[in-house]
Structures are given as structure tokens and as C-alpha cells.
Amino acid sequence: MQIAKGVEWTAHICTLLALLREGQGLNVDALAEFFEVPSAYLAKQMQLLRRAGIVESVRGKGGGYRLGRSVDAITLLDIVTAIEGPMPAFRCTEIRQNGPCGLKRSDCKRPCEIAAAFAVAEDAHREALAAKTVASIMQDAAINSTPEHMMEIAEWVQRQTA
């Protein structure tokens, strides 16, 4: 299973937006600069997050994007679904019905064993993503980062919104 780079980018961006003070936002160009990613591509990803209610756009001075929900209410599954859509990664095309020994459609009363195995794996994957919030990621980052690096990030955010 491959997760799109837009998921990685927007997950990081949600943790950065969490540092904003009430009423502030960061524009796409600043966000793109912070992570050194293409602004135009990032803008498309941010629109997907906005449509999902994960972020909201703010107009005017200090405008841009801010979180649309609390960090406890945004999960990695929310971000993945916003960027990649709700469809499962594995889609069975019933190739067991093809070829010289293919089953008749009427004989396929249950999902094939391969589709069933992938469904179990995908359920576990989605469950793990749903259990991880932006808040918990930020807690892990705070534990694993130096205080100096955390201050550097906070100061950068404040300069962008001043």
C-alpha cells in the first residue's frame, strides 16, 4: 500500500497549524516554504483538507489556513480520507472468474479469500490511523525533539503571523 505524499505533507501541516494563536492563519506559500514543497501542489491538498473540514481558510491580515477542529478531533485517518478519498486501497476485480478454470459468477456467493484477507488488513490499518490524532503526534514530537528545535518552530510561526 502506498500513501500519497500529499498525506505526509498535510499531516505535517496540521501539526504546524496547531501552533497558531486564535484567529491566525498561515498562507500556502508560507506552509510550502516551511517544508520546501511546491506551493501549487500544496494548495490543491489544502483545498481537500478544507472540504473535509480539517482546516478552514481565513481572509484578511494574518489570513491563510488554520485548523477547523481541535487537535484531538483530527486523526490520521481523517487526513488520509481527505487526501486519498474513502475508497479501500484494494479493490477486487473478481479475476477468479476469468480464464480456462474461472468460476461462474453464480458460484461466487462469498467474497474471494484474497479480497477478504485484504479487507481484514485494511480494517486494521484504518483502525490504527483512526487511533492516532494530531494531538498525540504533537506529544510524540515534543518528546522526541529538542526544546531548541521546538522553540525554533514556534518562533518561525510567530514571525509569519506577526
TrEMBL record:
One GO CC term, this protein: cytosol
**What terms describe the molecular function in GO for this protein?**
DNA-binding transcription factor activity
Which Gene3D superfamilies does the entry mention?
Winged helix-like DNA-binding domain superfamily/Winged helix DNA-binding domain
InterPro entries in the record: ArsR-like_HTH, TR_Rrf2-type_CS, Tscrpt_reg_Rrf2, WH-like_DNA-bd_sf, WH_DNA-bd_sf
Under the heading PANTHER family, the entry gives: TRANSCRIPTIONAL REGULATOR-RELATED (PTHR33221:SF13), WINGED HELIX-TURN-HELIX TRANSCRIPTIONAL REGULATOR, RRF2 FAMILY (PTHR33221)
NCBIfam families annotated for this entry?
A: rrf2_super
Name it.
Rrf2 family transcriptional regulator
Q: Which organism is it from?
A: Altererythrobacter lutimaris
